[in-house]
Amino acid sequence: MSVATKQLWDNALDHLRELTGATLYRHSELEARVAELEGELAALKLVYNATTDLDKPSHNAQLPSLSRQTSSFNVSQDPLVLCVIDGDRLLFDPSFIERGYQGGRQAAQDFTKAIAQELLVQDLTGFERLSFWVTIFLNKRALLNSLRDDGAPAPEQFEAFLLGFSQASPRFLVVDAGPGRECTEVKVKEYIKTYIRFPQTLRLFFGGFDEAYLAMYDGLDKEDLVQKLVLMEPPSDSFPAMRRMSARTTRFDGLFMAEKVSPWLGRRPGPLLGISEATSGVVTNGGLISPQSESQGSMYATPPPNGSSEYLKPIDPTKPLHKQNPPPCNEHYLMTCSKGPNCKYSHDWYLSSEQLEVLARNAKKAPCNYLKNGLPCPHGDRCCWGHVCPSGARCFHLSKGKCWFKGDGMHPPIPLQQTVEVA
Predict the structure, then answer these.
(1) Which contiguous run of DSSP H or E holds residue 37?
(2) What pLDDT score was predicted for residue 55?
(3) CA-to-CA separations, 284 to 50, 91, 339, in angstroms, rounded
(4) Cβ–Cβ contacts within 10 Å for residue 355, how many?
(5) Greater confidence, 311 or 297?
(6) Average pLDDT of 93-104?
(7) Using alpha carbons only, how large is the chain's radius of gyration in Å?
């Protein structure tokens, strides 16, 4: 057998081992998911049997009672009052943000009081206890850039405000949805569509509603779920869709900005504020753009003089991202680029949320230079580069000593459930 033929068989066997391990791991995941869904189905059947003889008006009238009955199928026995805010569209008043940490705690207290008063107005007082949760989803980088350009409070004040708000209660969460125009919107939609269906959810307050959420609202309306929904700071009555919507609405004077936040109008992705331009004394070239792009990017790109969208260039749809001329800079779009005008990759492309996701996936295929050189990565989980080899311990190139992921721990051992014996 020739050396070339033996190499082909070795490659085929390695590939087969990887496929077998991935299949077994996926099988165990699906088995666990099936068991979880069977438990949920049993609970839903009990609820359905209890409501099947009720017509729609009486069902709506008895919804609070049914919520209390079905809460026995869940870990929490208390009815839930949930609040979710699209922070890219609705933000607290600058008077709170300017006070930093203390302003965040005060905003949390005032907001809790406002929600409690609204529940009294809706006559929801027949419960011994209510479990109140607040979640704010936002794109921190875009929002910080927007506030900075508008002359709003400094980034440090905004960061401190978010910290104060989230630490006001263990049930108050601030979630950075990450880069991309639609990332926040997608997470808010999934949150609402998931939690509004929970039988113990008594009310779900939603702040930041606009036309982007109309399709979601129509879907909830068809399922008779909008009676649980309360729109905070909704658009004015001049907004055509508001005239046909049956969901409750409420406004809280002095809590939120009078005008909706619009971080995406005329913006381009910029550096992630709050991260130092020189987080370490180590000089690094930032890693490779991707394994496929090693020979690309000899041309230099100068960043546009300002953040206006007129300076952004559309991506050539006939070419993959790594073959654009020059390719987009991973660090600029996914975290922060310290090279400025000396960066050999472009900062001037306009990337959609889908293109940003592709860029992020490709970046993970190239090793982080800090870990590769045996140094701790100062960016941690925010690093756009790969901290582990995508092929893991079964990496074919590792066995030949040619894998780019050379640092310690970049080829973690295979979990037990993925281990297979090949005859």
Answers:
(1) helix 3-51
(2) 53
(3) 64, 38, 10
(4) 17
(5) 311
(6) 91
(7) 26
Contact 268, 304 (CB under 8 A): yes
Confidence of residue 283 (pLDDT cuts 50, 70, 90): very low
The full DSSP string for 311-366 is G-EE--TTS-GGGSSSPBPHHHHHS--S-GGG-SSBS-EE--HHHHHHHHHHHTTS
Q: 62 burial class (0-12, 13-18, 19+ CB within 10 angstroms)? A: middle
pLDDT in tens, 253-265: 889 987 665 554 3
Measured CA to CA, the distance from residue 161 to residue 140 in angstroms comes to 12
Which token pair is 79?
A: 């009815």
- Which of 374, 363, 4, 357 shows the shortest CA–CA distance to 181? 357
Residues 367, 401: Cα–Cα separation, whole Å: 15
By CB atoms closer than 10 A (0-12, 13-18, 19+), residue 84 is buried
- The Cα 182–Cα 327 span in angstroms is 23
CB neighbours of 274 closer than 8 A, spacing ≥ 6? Answer: 144, 155, 156, 159
- Does 259 or 98 have the greater pLDDT score? 98
Place of tokens 């040619």: 402
Q: Are 124 and 65 in contact (CB under 8 A)?
A: no
Query: What's the CA angle centered on 47, arms 45 and 53, to 5 degrees?
Result: 100
